[in-house]
Design a protein that fits this description.
Layout: H1 2-27, E1 32-47, E2 52-66, H2 84-110, E3 115-124, E4 141-145, E5 148-149, H3 153-163, E6 168-174, E7 177-184, E8 189-190, E9 196-197, E10 200-206, H4 209-236, H5 247-259, H6 264-286, H7 294-311, H8 317-347
Antiparallel strand pairs: 1-2, 3-10, 4-5, 4-6, 6-7, 8-9
């Protein structure tokens, strides 16, 4: 059942993204030739007044195909016939919708909270090895770990986990002053219940309406930070290709998270939270300046603007279309490789 829910969630995120393009295009009077969910051969289709609506076989993406999207056509309602700011809005609308969806889900989930855990130390275990001026003290507020800002306990857990047990550079706020603690060998200790802790108790924050709002905004923006950190790890080689997941891997992860939840209600909560994270991830990833992605199209639009201003010659959109088409084929190939990798990991129980 959770696998089905995961597939449905992934499909909903795709529909929301393409719906953003669709709504913006319709609002500006651009002709939409086809609105499709999925890729590959059509399973279902329905011809509207001017738009073909279709469901395709592979749940790997979707499209909002507009008239004259990659070439000039003699139609005033074509995409390329619109002013640049309108095209920019249409291209950004998909990611905007994903981001807003993720933010709304986070707000709904956060509004049920009764308290949050901050980053101020309220208690240290008796055998905590790093007490004192050169370590942590009760009253310290952790503000940075390895250069990353810390606001809540989730940040502390995330960046300590990324450190992988290695010493960390930490900055704390102590008696109103920032104190740097370099190469702090902070280690986890195993408690009786088997849960990994650091021997630190942090402050509780009452979940007032204002605090809920702040926490929801922070959580949504923190998703963006996690995307940036993940991309940095990929480019640095800290994360290998085998650790990259596509739709199959994401659905599998959602199923595992739900199965490990203590109750059905907890499973739905965790799935909703993960869905919000994925939605924001999709929004940010689609805005990267990579050809064939929305961000790549916007990037080319900006570059084209300056080239045309300098050369005083209009560049035929078909050349940009060639680049997007070639890159799209490469991305499809990459997605298939990632899908195979996901399947292999599932079969091997990873």
């Amino acid at each position: 059942m959770y696998i089905v829910i995961g597939i449905l969630v992934f499909g909903i995120l795709i529909i929301i993204h393409e719906l953003g393009h669709f709504i913006a295009a319709k609002a500006f009077g651009v002709k939409v030739v086809e609105f499709s969910v999925g890729m590959g051969p059509r399973l279902l289709k329905k011809q509207g007044k001017e738009t073909l609506y279709s469901l395709r076989a592979l749940p790997l993406g979707g499209s909002c195909l507009m008239e004259g999207e990659d070439e000039e056509v003699p139609d005033p309602r074509a995409f390329t016939a619109q002013r640049r700011w309108k095209r920019l809005v249409i291209l950004a609308a998909g990611s905007f919708m994903n981001f807003i969806f993720g933010a709304i889900v986070v707000f709904i989930l956060v509004w049920q909270s009764t308290a949050f855990v901050g980053a101020t130390v309220t208690e240290l275990e008796e055998d905590f090895p790093l007490k004192g001026e050169n370590g942590l003290m009760v009253g310290d507020t952790i503000v940075e770990i390895n250069g990353e800002k810390v606001y809540y306990i989730e940040d502390f857990s995330t960046f300590m986990s990324l450190a992988g047990g290695r010493p960390v550079d930490m900055t704390v706020l102590r008696d109103g002053e920032k104190v740097r603690l370099d190469d702090l060998p902070l280690k986890r200790s195993v408690l009786v219940d088997g849960e990994l802790k650091y021997g630190i108790t942090f402050n509780k924050i009452e979940a007032t309406a204002g605090e809920k709002f702040n926490y929801a905004v922070y959580t949504t923006m923190n998703f963006v930070r996690l995307v940036r950190i993940s991309l940095a790890q990929m480019f640095s080689g800290a994360v290998g290709f085998r650790e990259v997941s596509g739709p199959v891997g994401i659905v599998s992860t959602m199923n595992q998270v739900a199965q490990q939840s203590q109750s059905f209600g907890a499973a739905i909560y965790n799935l909703a939270f993960l869905s919000a994270l994925i939605a924001v991830n999709l929004a940010v990833f689609n805005m990267l300046p990579i050809p064939a992605l929305d961000g790549g199209r916007i990037f080319f639009m900006i570059i084209t603007f300056f080239v045309e201003k300098i050369s005083r010659r209009r560049i035929n959109p078909k050349y940009e279309g060639y680049i997007h088409t070639a890159t799209f084929m490469l991305l499809v190939g990459l997605m298939l490789v990632v899908m195979v990798n996901d399947v292999v990991k599932i079969v091997n129980g990873q």
